[in-house]
Structure formats: structure tokens, C-alpha cells
Amino acid sequence: MLGATGFTGGLAVRHLAKTYYYNNNDGNNGNNNKVGSSTIKWAIAGRSEVKLKQVLEKLAMELNIPNLVNDIDIIICDTSDDNQSTLKELVYNTKSIATTVGPFSIYGENVIKYCVHYGTHYTDITGETSFVKLMKSKYQHIAQHTGARILNFCGNDCVPWDISYNLLADEFNKSGASFGDNESLEKLEFINEFSSSASGGTLKTMCMGIDGRLAKPLPKDETILRRNGDIDHDPPMENKISFGIESGVPKPWKMTSDNNSNNNNNANNKIITAPFVMSGVNYEAISWSHALRKDPICSYKEQLVQPDLKTALDGVLGLTIFFTSLMNPITGKLLEKFVITKPGDGPTMEDMTNKYFLAVTGTAYGSKGTILQSLLYYNKDPGYLETARMVIECSLCLATSFVDNDDDNDDDNDDDNDKTKTQITGGGFYSPGFALRKVLLKRLVDTGCYYELRVIQEAEVEAAAAAEKETAELASSSGSS
């Protein structure tokens, strides 16, 4: 765990200690909720030995694990210094690295460079799409050669949406599905119920992005995330994200208490949606998955649920004022210096545990009329507490249960021939949802998520087959004449 002394990094160490700490000399050390393998060996890394020890000491007291300080290795390294041999040694001796050290445009490249060089797997929590594009353009071929699997966007940017999309798309791709063979996903819509807060690190990255201080890929690499080899994926995923407020939107099935959730004529079955601040990053990640899957053309839309029109208007106006102020050289500097939370600070544990949450409802529309819907629910703060858990679980997928395409150690009782569980067999840059699928989903559910998939409407298979037959006959008749 690299960046353990930062705000999100400390939460990631907390998740590791609470969920996966194991001492061979003491059965469970009071940790009766351990769900991981006792063979997991993990360490924390950062620039300051003193601060790293303080992280372990604090957790040892909070979690009542007195041996934690002595049992967990501490590794000193500096990600910003390219000449530091400590970073090279860390990467060389590690199977999988999870890092929260941002802004990644400043502190991330050296870690990726050594990971792809030594074949070490990598996960991060970046939402900096320009950084991801630049890294893929520079290091993709090396990673493919060494076998390093590089997974960006492994936190709230953008696991909940990316994994939901891939699991929904997999349902359409399953042979022998009950709603008909060869049906493709044509339209994807996400509606989010979201409550979180922003840490200093996140706000600092936003300021740097607006100020033009983040990574800048070459113009030719703007589409690199949907590029297979030297050819852009075509057709792409169409961006249908709305930046306006919409009223009268039908409720997803999990957001209503009545059983008539699909009755769009029911006035009580409508909601108000507004723009979602993360939709642009989510679109980039899911478009990446779409290209990796080589799926046919599909449209993407994402909106945020608001309780009423006034709240929606206030939210849009507040974001507009905030970003406009950041873009102004004078007010932007004042905000960054006096108003915005400093890096290392963030919401309280009490608020993250009891106040914040995320519910992502994805609706997938098929080419033959099938409508599928999924719900992925986090009952704690998604931006930091859950992001820390997500990046750790992604990294553990690469280090343990996820080994090769034929690995079946996830114990989810699926058919051994279900190749939708894992999709990658070699090195390279991948989106987390595409790469990890059900292996990651199981780890997330086992450690604190809720997921459900439901068929809202089945395709008229017989009618579709009859229409196809009629079309074929007409074409044949026309050809004969």
C-alpha cells in the first residue's frame, strides 16, 4: 500500500488491517470478521518512516491489534524522485501495488514506469483521464511484454459504474440467455443516489486540472483508451450525458416502494435528475471497457437524483460558480489558499460511516427489447472510505485470486466455463471493470457492498425471430427477382 500516510491511503491501510491482518502466532487477534486468506503478505510504503509508524500505531489502538506495528513491514520510498533506488526495490519485490499518491500527474509516473519494467501489477485511484492516456501511450507496449497489469480508475473513479456496465453487458453476451441469443446492448443509463464530501487531495487535483498543471497527452492520443493496437475502436460508445435538469424521469425499480415501478403514468413514480460531476470521467472509463470488449455501438447517459427542483437548481448553480471561480486566476488562487481543504484532510470517520452513501442503478436496453437493471450499493462514504476498500480489493484480485483466465478460485459457484469472470491473460493497461468482473464483485460484496441484477423486460424472442425470418424472405425474394 503506497501512500499510506495520506488521507485515503490511511483508510486503505485501515481496511487491510481490519479485514486481512493475520498473525501466525495468534489465531485471529480479535479479528473475527477476517474474510481474506491468511497467506496475504502486505506492507505499507511512503516517504516518512515516522509517519508510517504512526499510522500503524493509531490503527493498532483503534482496532485492538497490538501486534500490528511489529508484524507489518514498513518500506521507505519517494515516488517523485526518479533516481531513488528505494522505489525500484519496492516495485521489484512486490507482486501488486495499490497507490493513492496523487496528484498522479506529479507523483504517479515513476511508479507505473517501474511496474511495467519489472512486471509488477498496479492499481490506483486516479480520476485524471489525461494522466491515464499519457501513461498508456508511453508504457503499453512494455507492459504487454513484461506481463504487468496496470489498472487505473480503481476507486470511486470509476469502479461502481465500470463494473456495473461490464456485468450488464456480459448478460447480453452469454450464449443461451433466456432473453434470446445474439442480443446486444444498445443503450446504457445510470441514475445515481450519491452523498459524499471532498478531501483536500481531490480538491487540489481539481485546482491543478483547471490551472493546466496536470498531464497532457499528445493530440493523437486523445482517443487512446478506445484504441486496440493502432486502430481506434469503431463504432464507439456515444456520449448522451445530459448537462441539464430533467423532471419526470421514471424511477428505477429499487427507488420505489410500490410494485408498479415500470408504470410511467404514475405521477408518484417520477424523479428529478441533474448533472453528475463525475459523469465525464465515468464515461471515459466505460468507453475504455466498451472498446476492450469490442462491443457494438452503444449510447451512454448518467444523471444524479435530486429530491426536488430547487435542490437541483441550487446544485447546478453552486457547481457553476465554484468551477468558474476556480478558472479565474484571482479567485482561483484565493480559493485554493484560504477555502479549499488542504491535502491530507478529509471528512470525519463518523460522517464517512454514517452520513454518506452511493447507490448506482444501471439500466441496459437490448437490441431485441430486453431491459436489464442492476443495483450496486455502498452504505458508507464512496469518495474515500469505500474508494480505499475498492483499490485494495482490485489490487488483491491481481495478487491472489485473479491469476489467469482459467483461474476459478473465486468460489462463487459459477460454471467453470463462464469466461465472463476474467478476461485478460497478458500485461497491459486495462479498465478495472473489464479486467476483474465477477472476481472483483465477489470481493466487494464479501467486504461490504450490495449487488442485485434483475430482468425488467424480456425480449419478444418469437416476434423478433419471425421479423428476422420475414426480412430474410423478402431479401431472398428481391434477390431472385
From TrEMBL:
Coiled coil start-end: none
Protein name: Saccharopine dehydrogenase NADP binding domain-containing protein
Superkingdom classification of source: Eukaryota
Organism: Fragilariopsis cylindrus CCMP1102
Entries under PANTHER family matching the protein: SACCHAROPINE DEHYDROGENASE-LIKE OXIDOREDUCTASE (PTHR12286)
GO biological process: glycolipid biosynthetic process
InterPro entries assigned: Saccharopine_DH-like_oxidrdct (IPR051276)
GO cellular component, one term: plasma membrane
Lineage: Eukaryota, Sar, Stramenopiles, Ochrophyta, Bacillariophyta
